């Protein structure tokens, strides 16, 4: 048994994918099971949007860093420079 999803057109004809059309012949009887799929209602994630707004508010006026020095800073920190015990 092979499963395909068909779309119901405005005139109630079924639109089958090409793979399904290749399997059926005129006059052939096929079994159809109807399963309704509800349209998903997309709601904005208001809590996440509020958090992003808060982050933007807190970042306003701060200088921007591009992150190109991040690896160097992490290496220096791990080596002890941020604690005053840099071996160099």
Topology:
Blueprint: E1 7-8, E2 14-15, H1 18-21, H2 46-59, H3 70-79
Antiparallel strand pairs: 1-2
What does the model show?
- The chain has a two-stranded antiparallel ribbon with strand order 1-2.
- It has helices at residues 18-21, 46-59, 70-79, and strands at 7-8, 14-15.
- The longest helix is centred in the middle third of the chain and has 14 residues, at 46-59.
- A hairpin with a 5-residue loop joins strand 1 and strand 2 (14-15).
- The chain is mostly helical and 88 residues long.
- The protein is elongated.
- The mean pLDDT is 83.
What are its keywords?
mainly alpha, elongated, 32% helix
Summarize it.
Helix content is 32%, strand content 5%. It has 88 residues and is mainly α.
Number of strands: 2
Instruction: Tell me the radius of gyration.
Output: 30 Å
- Strand portion, in percent? under 5%
SS element count, helices: 3
Termini Cα gap: 70 Å
- Anisotropy-based shape: elongated
